[in-house]
Amino acid sequence: MPIPECALDTYNAHSRYMHTLFKAELARQTGSSITVEVDCPIACSVEMALESRNIVQCLVEAYLHPVHVTWDIEKYRTECIRRQVHNGMQKDKEVRLQKDFPSVRRNMRLVHSPRTVVDKYGRIIAWLLPGILPQRLQLLIAQCAELIAPEMGKQLRQSSHTKSWRSSEEMFTTIEGELPPGLLNFSAAWFMLGREGRIDGLVSSPIVRTECGQQWMQEFAQVGAIISGMLRIMHPDQYRMGYEVMTRLMTYPEVNDTLISWPCIFNAATVISSRCCPMHRDTKGSFPLFDLLISTGKYTTAPLSLLPIGVQLPNCPGSISSFSGMGFSHGVAHAEGARVCHAFYMRQALQVFTNVIPCSWMTQDTYKQWIGDRSRGNITVKLDLESI
User: What transmembrane ranges does the database entry give (predicted)?
Assistant: First the structure.
């Protein structure tokens, strides 16, 4: 998919399409009397339209089959702040926290089908979507990763002397003939060290200013449109917030060129190749906001564990999970094979810099407003897919 005059227009149009598809499919499955017309974007191919439809059906299944926790996510967040359990690896604090906020089961519950995780008041705190991405998009992601392979290996060498486990060589595995181990951070906009929150410090990350970084953004456009559409469904308010941040940042010439080509609604991404991941919390992002993790590659097992929810995603190739990486301790076991993780997130500092009002939790009530009273009448959903 070639980059148009502004990639924001493309993924915004496709996300609107997926959002409407979701409402139509949810209405159909719940017997609502709502009528929904679905118009496919002109730039969308038949193949991509059908892939989007299948992904939307998985999202509907996840919404209709929630896993419930017995506690209040707001109280959990308050306790995380009070006890200073909000980033890094703090095993003792996590254990004490879990006693007050018990998981679904004593042992990890393995989730093999699409699920949401919901707190006691109906707030949706996670989406778990095993194997949701079709093979074509997985191959496209792999091709995009190959474009940045030389930079990824370089980044690992440059980080080998740091104390962080994230770039420690012992966390990575070299697999002959596959993508080199390493990680790369992409930011549509960020601040130079010592100039946080200042206009004269606003920059894009170095990788997006390279030729291979530009190619990655262009070739990732289809996947970017899909995950943007997924976020618009999973958390519409976060999508609107991200869109407002992007449009305001585009007024700054320092990052405008990058933002014109940036392929998705998330303003930052990290690509990680062949790394295991101990239980931890991320230091970026914000508690109510969803990050989105894509797992692809030639591997068999790499389970993703989520505390204190007490669930484990098999994390087979093509799986997507979405939750607050800062809000929940999570980790991925060593993969049997070559695994690549793409982590997408929104930097809270950019939201503050652009004076965009923060969003709150996504709730089940939002979807109930979409489908209305199920007892009102017969199914009258108009799902016009014949013209796609």
Answer: none
